[in-house]
Amino acid sequence: MDLVGRQYLYLQDEDRLELLAHFQSSFPKHLLCYQCYIFHRKSGILGAGSLDCGRRNGHLVTGTMRLSFSVMQNAMNCYLYGRSHYVPFIPFTYHGRKTKYDITVEEKVELKASNDNVLLHQRIIATFNRTGLQVTTKTAKDIPFNVPLNKWEFLKCRVCETDIGTRRDRLDANYDNITVDLWRALGPCRSPFESQWELQTEPYDRYHKPLLLTSGNEFAFSLFRETKPLSVPSGSSR
User: Which of 4, 22, 96, 189 is such that its CA lies 20 to 30 A from the CA of 64?
Assistant: First the structure.
């Protein structure tokens, strides 16, 4: 069965959606679609040729990748309903790498859940030759040279409640590393129309979200670090 919900439930779309939401725990191989008002098989909405409806729910854009709402929805399902909802092709950790403006960027993204919220930990490590860096944009100029050397600086975005830590370390006579740690609270991820999710998605982030950074603190980071990772069933590979 590739979808569940449309065949037998002749209700208004919103009423059917509210009813189906109560059955999510009973469908470990499916995800509730808020565009079609039915359950789709996970391999269809998250696999290689994923459905258009899943893409309409918005994407969270990180340094090297794009993560869909369905990924976050599945993470929360695993947290709320147990390991039976885990599927190996929807991991809880992601890795990316790219080179741009003579800067090599490596990124690790990890999903956690706490207090009915999906938490996203994003660590970006940028390595660059500070003596030979060709500055071609204002962004490329500002990021490497304004990060504090050999110490952490903590910031917080008061709009989307993202906690940020930055640090710059000297590797040798020519090369520096910049580490950027971000903790994002994505909300419960029960619907793609939740305000906290929409604040983090690409369309809103690109066109609407103001930049409101204030001083942060290390205490918030310690709380995030102590949050347990989402569990993977024994014998499964991340």
Answer: 189
